[in-house]
Amino acid sequence: MRRLALPVLAPLALILGLAPPAFAHGDGLPISPAEIWHHWSFDPLVCIPILLGHWLYGRGVGRAWRQAGVGRVIPRWRVACFLAGELVLVVALISPLDPLGETLLSAHMAQHILLTALAPPLLLLGAPVLAWTWALPRAWRRVGTAPLVRVVAILLDALSGPLVASLIASAVMWAWHAPALFEAALENSTVHTLEHTTFFLGAVIGWRAALSPHTSAIAAAISTLLVFMAGGMLGGVLSLAPVPLYDWYGNSALFWSISPLEDQQIAGLLMWVIAGSIYLAAFAIFAFRAADPSGSGRSPPSHGIIRASTSSRSTK
Q1: Which residue has the higher pLDDT, 10 or 310?
Q2: How many angstroms separate the most distant Cα atoms in the chain?
Q3: What number of other Cβ atoms are within 10 A of residue 157's Cβ?
Q4: Residue 29: how many other CB atoms lie within 10 Å
Q5: Could you report the per-residue pLDDT of 118-162, keeping only the tens digit for each?
Q6: Residues 243-273: pLDDT tens digits?
Q7: Contact (Cβ atoms closer than 8 angstroms) between residue 194 and residue 133
Q8: pLDDT score, position 136
Q9: Which residues contact 49 (CB under 8 A, 6 or more apart)?
């Protein structure tokens, strides 16, 4: 089983091992184009969870495929989605994009888009809970029946109603882009970590609701449309504002031959167009399913994203 997990772990470890020395949220000095590849962020609070989750996922997939056959239980396309989601997290949180977000608002916005619009759906489509369940020792696989775990599951279900989940994701997005909170995150590494954590978790809640097999396609379409509209309005505010809204950046954008206002406009367009396109594409998929007269109006019942089966029959 260990031999099955290690080959899956190797690519991520190689990325981390070959990267130049890190300068993570440290000096606060602007980063110029010539210095960009010397700035990586190796925060243990980021690297360790990614590596641990990656190792558990590889161990679970390896064990499932060994017992049920390659591509069974967790199909190859789900594994590809999960690995792609992890790569997005590496780009967002470990690559030079992370420290560059202290120089360019547009880079910070690109990071937020990766953390909210791209990484969560890819990771969830990878069925991580199912893989992690297979990775556990056999005696632990009934952990889902424990009272505390059931309470947590009930709470997650309450938060993951499509309407509630979309409102949570949208509220987190708008709250952190208020100038006071946004600049507090830039000035304080603890607040910055809290910002990224809530961004990611809020997005996971939103995407979990949309991708759940228990959510109708109509509800999923409405949920993604609401987040699309919220992000579009935020992008519009940033793009159309006549002056820079975040004083913390000052004139650091000049190192990249753009003005602070142009940097803010690029950030708004990224939110408006790039993130909007992702949510709009998801809305179109769900709306098509809802309008399909031959379908049931529900997402395919084979997501297996959040609540993995823990019965002895499914994990033998």
Answers
A1: 10
A2: 62
A3: 15
A4: 13
A5: 999 999 999 999 999 898 887 666 665 667 667 777 777 777 788
A6: 999 999 999 999 999 999 999 999 999 999 9
A7: no
A8: 82
A9: none
What is the extent of the structural domain holding 256? 2-315
Beta bridge partners of 40: 22
Q: HEC string of the chain?
A: CHHHHHHHHHHHHHHHHHCCCECCCCCCCCCCHHHHHHCECCCHHHHHHHHHHHHHHHHHHHHHHHHHCCCCCCCHHHHHHHHHHHHHHHHHHCCCHHHHCCCCHHHHHHHHHHHHHHHHHHHHHCCHHHHHHHHCCHHHCCHHHCHHHHHHHHHHHHHCCHHHHHHHHHHHHHHHCCHHHHHHHHHCHHHHHHHHHHHHHHHHHHHHHHHCCCCEHHHHHHHHHHHHHHHHHHHHHHHHCCCCCCHHHCCHHHHHCCCHHHHHHHHHHHHHHHHHHHHHHHHHHHHHHHHCCCCCCECCCCCCCCCCCCCHHHHC
Residue-level pLDDT at 5: 45
Q: How far apart are CA 71 and CA 78, in angstroms?
A: 9
User: Is it the case that residue 1 has pLDDT exceeding 50?
Assistant: no
Look-up: residue for tokens 């007269």?
A: 293
Six-digit token string for 210 = 């949309």
CA angle 179, 96, 101 (to 5 degrees): 10
Domain count of the fold of the chain: 1
Cα(127)–Cα(75) distance, rounded to whole angstroms? Answer: 10
- Mean pLDDT in residue range 284-307: 63
Structure tokens at 248: 């913390």
Beta carbons of 176 and 182 less than 8 angstroms apart? yes
Share of the chain above pLDDT 70, in %: 80
CA dihedral (308, 309, 310, 316) in degrees, to 10, reads -120
Residue with tokens 């406009």: 265
